[in-house]
Amino acid sequence: MNRRTFIRIVGGVSLSSAIAPRYAMGASTDSFHTSGVLVEASSFASIGGWKLDTQHYQQMGGSYLLAHGIGTPVKNAQTKVSVPEAGTWYVFVRTRDWCQGDWAAPGRFRVHIGGAVLKPVFGTENDEWHWQKGGSVEISEAGEIEIEFEDLTGFDGRCDAIYLSQEANPKLPNEDRIALTAWKDRLTGRAELEIEEQTYDVVIVGGGISGCAAALSARSQGLNVAIIQDRPVFGGNASDEIRVHTEGIHGKGEGILKAIDTPHYPNGDAEAAGAQTKRDATMNASGVHRFAHHIAIGLEKKGDQIVSVEAREVTTGLIRRFKSQTFIDATGDGWLGFWGGADTRYGREAHTEFGEAWEIHGDLWSPEKADDRVMGASVLWNSERITKRVNFPKVPWALPVANGHQAVQGEWYWEYSSNDLHQVHDAEKIRDHVLRAIFGSFANAKKHPKNATVALKWVAHIAGKRESRRIMGDYIYTMRDMTERREFPDTIAEETRSVDSHYQLSETGSKQDFLSKALFRKPGGTYFLPFRAMYSRNISNLMMAGRCFSCSHIGLAGPRVMNTCGQMGIATGYAAALCNNYKATPREIGSQHIKELQGLIGYEKTIS
C-alpha cells in the first residue's frame, strides 16, 4: 500500500510526515518564547514606499519589506498591532546588513513604536538574517499601538518581522527555517486553522509566460484551472517588475502568446507597463483561477504521483491546498520536481556527455569536466537626463564590486553567476551583488561632468533568472538537437533563434564579475522540441514548462526565451486536458495520444 507523504520545504530542508490537517507539521516550538507579540512585515497595513519581497521565502523564512529607493529614502511603512498589557516591552527586529564592510551599512532604517523612535539603527549588525535587539519601549496602556519603518538611505534596508517581548532575552527561532515558520504560525494563530482545500483539473505553479500560456490553453479546453504565482503580477521576466521583452517565435501558439507577450522594447523600459496591462486583462477574462501573491511551500505525494500542492498567501500567511490529477511546474527553479524527488540537473555537463564541444573563437561551449556553473541572473536598470544637476549619494560599499566600471544604464549582459553562489539557494545574495554593481558603476559615471544631469530612473528589485534546476524527462534536449535540426515524432514546439549561451567575463580575466559574454551559433533554420522533454520521468503526473524543462545546459541555450517557453506551456496545458479526458499520465498521452495533442497545438500531421 502506498503511504501518502507530505513534503513542506523551507530553506532547502524537507519535512516529511503523514499528511496533517494543520500548519505546524510536527515542528516543535516549545523551546522558543511564545508569550510575546509578533508582527510580520508582510502583513503591514501600508507598506508606503517599501517593496514586498517574496522571492527569497524558501531561503530565509519570510516575505520581507525592502526599502528599494535607489538612493532616496522611501516613504514609511505603517501598521497597528494590539499589545495585551502596559509596561516595558523589549523589541527584536529580524533583519540583516546586506553589505557588511568598513563603511556605514547601506540598508539602515529606524523603527517607531507607539510614537517613540527606537534608539538602535537596524540593518547594521550581521550579514545573515538574525534578530537584532532594539532596546525597550514603554507602553502606557494595553491596546492598539502603531509601528513604522523609517528608511534612512534608500538603499535596500530590509525587515522580515518584529517581536515584542516582556522578557529581555527571549529565545527566538532563526536558523531552523521549519521551526521559524511553525513558530510564526503559532504566534499568529494560523496553526489552529484548518487548511482550505480546493480541487482543480490542473494546477500550475509559476505565473510567468510559460505558466500563463499553460493556464490559457488548458482553460480553452474547458478545464478548471488554478495558477499559483508568488508575485502580485503575472508575467515573470516579462512582467513590469523585471521588464525583459519576450523573444523567440510564437510557433503554432500565436493566438495565445500574442495576448500575453511584449513588444520588442529596450530591456528595462517602462513600456513593459502596457504589456502588463494587456496580460492582466487576458488572464482576468480567461476564467482561470488566479492565485497571485501565493508562495508554493510544499506538496503531498502518494507513490510516484503528486496529490496536492500547498501555497501560502503572502499578506495573511494563510495556507491553501490545491488538489489535482495533473500538475505543471512552471516555477523556473523546478520547485515541484525538487520537492517531489524528481531527477534534476544543475550546472554544465562535461562536453563529452552529449557531444557539445563545439568551439567559437576559442571558446568552449561545455567544459572538460562537469561543474555547477549556470547562466546568471540579471537586474535591469536605466537612467534619464533631466534639466538640472542632480547628485548621487556616496556608495563606498558598492565601489569594490563595480571595480572602476562606469555606466548610466544596464542591459542583458549585466548578469551574475558564480562558482560560490547557487542560483536558487543564494538568490538574495546574487541579486544584492548586482545591485552593488549598478550603484557603484553609476556613481563612477557621475564623476564626469557630462553626466551631471543624469539621474537614476528605475532599478529592478527582482533579478531575472536564466537558468537553475532542470527536471529530467524521458528525453534530454541538447545542443545537437538544435544544430542538427532533429525532427521528432512527438514535436510540440519549434524555434529558429540561435543557440545562445552565456558565461561570465570574469572567467576570461575581466575585473568585472557582473558582466557576461554570449556565444552564438545559428541553427540554419527551424528546430523542434519533443513532448518527452516536458514531463518528469519519475513523477508520473508532473509536467514542466519553461526553463526547467528536460535539457542539458547548452540544450537550454536556444529555447530558454519566453515565447518558446510559452509554446511549452501551451503544449502542457493541452496535454493536461487530454490527461483529464483519458484519465492518463503525460507519458501515456505522449505514447498513445500524441497526434491528438499535436492537433490541438496546430500541427496538422505528426512530424516524422
Topology:
Elements: E1 4-10, E2 13-17, E3 37-40, E4 51-53, H1 57-60, E5 64-68, E6 77-83, E7 87-95, E8 109-113, E9 116-117, E10 130-139, E11 143-151, E12 155-165, H2 177-188, E13 196-205, H3 209-220, E14 225-228, H4 254-257, H5 272-285, E15 289-291, E16 294-302, E17 305-313, E18 319-329, H6 335-340, E19 344-345, H7 351-354, E20 359-360, E21 363-364, E22 377-378, E23 381-385, H8 399-402, E24 415-416, H9 427-445, E25 454-459, E26 464-465, E27 470-471, H10 479-483, E28 491-495, E29 499-504, E30 516-521, E31 527-530, E32 542-544, H11 562-582, H12 586-592, H13 594-601
Parallel strand pairs: 13-14, 13-18, 14-15, 18-32
Antiparallel strand pairs: 1-2, 1-16, 3-12, 4-5, 5-12, 6-11, 7-10, 7-12, 8-9, 8-11, 16-17, 17-18, 19-27, 20-21, 22-24, 22-26, 23-25, 28-31, 29-30
Helix pairs in contact: 3-11, 11-13
Structure description:
With 608 residues, this protein is α+β, with helices and mostly antiparallel strands. The chain has 3 domains: 32-177, Galactose-binding domain-like (Jelly Rolls, Sandwich), CATH 2.60.120; 196-351 and 467-601, FAD/NAD(P)-binding domain, CATH 3.50.50.60; 377-465, no CATH class. Strands 1, 2, 13, 14, 15, 16, 17, 18 and 32 form a 9-stranded mixed sheet that branches. Helix 3 (209-220) runs parallel beside helix 11 and helix 11 packs across helix 13 (594-601). The longest helix has 21 residues, at 562-582. The radius of gyration is 25 Å and the shape is globular. The protein starts with a strand and ends in a 7-residue tail after the last helix. Residues 9-22 have low confidence and may be disordered.
